[in-house]
Write a structure and sequence with these properties.
6 strands
């Protein structure tokens, strides 16, 4: 999985996930401040700052969600743009 923009990878634990087995992260970028990307099922996670195209981690089965900040400050899951998905899933050197 690749960073779609320069940004930062943060640990995320879904409150409904008892064992934390899904290994979720949030990816945030100042290039798209109204959006967060949640990726679950990762291994070999690279936390902290990453450059566009850098590896975030790898997965056999990825659960991907795009969240958009709403005017009231809450977050809503929205359909991801195809080009963002293509950037995240782009093959590269691991």
């Amino acid at each position: 999985m690749r960073a779609p923009f320069d940004g930062e990878v943060y640990a995320y634990r879904d409150p409904s996930e008892l064992g934390g087995a899904n290994r979720c992260v949030l990816f945030a970028s100042p290039q798209v401040p109204a959006y967060l990307f949640r990726l679950c099922g990762l291994q070999g996670i690279q936390f902290g700052r990453v450059r566009q195209g850098a590896s975030i981690g790898r997965a056999q089965s990825l659960h991907f969600a795009t969240l958009r900040k709403q005017p009231d400050g809450s977050w809503a899951i929205v359909e991801p743009a195809r080009d963002i998905l293509q950037q995240v899933l782009a093959p590269g050197q691991e």
